Amino acid sequence: MLKKPLQKCKLVGKERNVVVDTYFVSTREIQLYYADTDMMGVIYHANYLKFFELGRTGFIEDIGYSYLSMEEMGYYAPVYDITITYKKPLRYGDQAFVKTWVELNDGIKTIYGYTIVNGGEEVCAVGTSTHIIVRKDNFRPTSFKKAFPEWYLKYEEIKKK
Hints:
Number of strands: 9
Strand content: 35-45%
């Protein structure tokens, strides 16, 4: 598994990853396209789920791991549950960011927290996604803690407390 040390504060263009109180938050800019809008001219609601995925995979990369390497080792991390609450619409032309952190990590499931904000830092949506680890060959759940002990410990170190 590829791993690199966690940087507590990283500034890369408009992407800012920071430690907030006692937990790590990854931030990714979201590219909003005209094709993402609905008839009302706002970003279609289902696209926010893609934005959550952008945040989750970016979070994993920021702490030095790779979802692709997980798959190569014979595992998937499917969505078990997802929640989203819409607060303010995003529109084509808006600047937007997804902020991601680990809300809960119990060794069986991991809950990621998300906040989507516009360029003015106004909250547009909040939510969570719950993931479990399954084996590729039989899709049976397995312990994240046992399959990826170092990754699990990193989440314990940086999760929201």
